[in-house]
Amino acid sequence: MREQDVHIEKLEQIHLVGIRVCCPAEEYISEIPQAAKRLDERKQEISHVTNPTQQMGAFVVEASSEDEEGYWVCVQVKKVGQLPDGMVSLTIPPQTYAVMKHNGPNTTILHTYDELHNWIEKSSWTRKLGAWHLERFHHFKNKEKI
């Protein structure tokens, strides 16, 4: 385990605008990169983007309603303005996150998640499966190196 790679981050409220992906579980591995490509092609349509070179993914592990089902591929915005056609907005409340960096293809990200979850289990922290989980993508154009 790469425990030295795990750190804790407290984030204030975050506003996101992007594309919601809803599909059978086994299709997310291909659908998310397609949505990331579409978002990158249309990011100039979104107002108030804080970092146009970074995308964020958002999801709730144990969704409590249909509104929380799926995966959101987004960019962070200072505030939500007019939404482009086919896009949605999310406001993520202030939260504390355990953070670990993943390098490599999207097909191996579950291994990184296993390491992170093991670290959380051994620590004094508790995973909140009903809360928003975030992923930051600095490299999203090539699914072999995210």
Considering DSSP H and I runs of 4 or more, what fraction of the residues is helical?
10-25%
Measured between the Cα atoms of the first and last residue, the distance is 20 Å
Number of helices: 2
* Biggest β-sheet: strands ordered side by side in the sheet: 5-2-4-3-7
Over the alpha carbons, how many angstroms does the gyration radius reach? 15 Å
Low-pLDDT runs: none
Number of strands: 7
What class do helices, strands and sheet pairing give?
alpha+beta
Gross morphology: globular
SS strand fraction: 25-35%
Mean of all residue-level pLDDT scores: 92
Order of helices and strands: EEHEEEEHE
User: What multimeric state do the chains show?
Assistant: single chain
Main β-sheet: number of strands, strand sense, barrel status? Answer: 5 strands, antiparallel
Summary tags:
alpha+beta; 146 residues; two-stranded antiparallel ribbon
Could you characterize the architecture of this molecule?
The protein contains 2 helices and 7 strands. The chain has helices at residues 28-42, 109-122; strands at residues 7-11, 14-21, 55-60, 71-77, 88-92, 95-99, 132-137. The strands form 2 sheets. A 5-stranded antiparallel beta sheet has the order 5-2-4-3-7, covered by helices on one side.
Topology:
Elements lengths: L6 E5 L2 E8 L6 H15 L12 E6 L10 E7 L10 E5 L2 E5 L9 H14 L9 E6 L9
Antiparallel strand pairs: 1-6, 2-4, 2-5, 3-4, 3-7
In short:
With 146 residues, the protein is α+β, with helices and mostly antiparallel strands. The chain has 2 helices and 7 strands.
